């Protein structure tokens, strides 16, 4: 009987030690995850670091319209003083009379993040917001015969001078 009691105590001790080990590992994992999340939003020092971060965060994201589109990096290495329709059309080398529709940043991302079970849109949004200023959505229609098609840009300024963000393709219905 003593042997049976000793055996139970060993099991209890084993379970207790196992629980402590799992708890410690979980704590380390949570700390690593929090550290990783903080690192995800740290300000990149260079344009190359920022664009690399955007490429990673936009991978496998789809912009849904009648014809789905990948979301991919957009940047122009030209220095600008401000970000408005005329400046943006000039960066795209489009005629100044090209119609441009600016959309609000928050509603654009709210629509995407509310429908995204993967959380990828939210991660991309947070990264862009943490690293860019003057955040803007530009919708630029394509020329004939593609009147119902447009390019969409979610962009801002890196270091206050370089236009960076993501580009998508859409079809208006």
Summarize the structure.
The protein is α+β, with helices and mostly antiparallel strands and 173 residues long. 47% of the residues lie in helices and 25% in strands.
What keywords describe this structure?
173 residues; alpha+beta; Nuia; 2 domains; 5-stranded antiparallel beta sheet; two-stranded antiparallel ribbon; 5 helices; globular; disordered N terminus
Explain what the structure shows.
- With 173 residues, this protein is α+β, with helices and mostly antiparallel strands.
- The chain folds into two domains: 1-40; 47-171, Nuia (3-Layer(aba) Sandwich).
- It has five helices and seven strands.
- Helix 2 (47-58) packs antiparallel against helix 5.
- The radius of gyration is 24 Å and the shape is globular.
- Residues 1-39 have low confidence and may be disordered.
Strand content: 25-35%
Tell me the span between the first and last alpha carbons: 80 Å
- Based on helices, strands and strand pairing, what is the structural class? alpha+beta
**Average pLDDT across residues?**
80
Largest sheet: 5 strands, antiparallel
Shape: globular
Taking Cα atoms only, what radius of gyration do you get, to the nearest Å?
24 Å
Task: Identify the CATH homologous superfamily of the largest domain.
Answer: Nuclease A inhibitor-like
Low-confidence residue ranges: 1-39
Write the layout of secondary structure elements.
Blueprint: H1 2-40, H2 47-58, E1 62-63, E2 69-70, E3 72-79, H3 85-92, E4 101-103, H4 105-114, H5 120-131, E5 133-141, E6 149-158, E7 162-171
Antiparallel strand pairs: 1-2, 3-7, 4-5, 5-6, 6-7
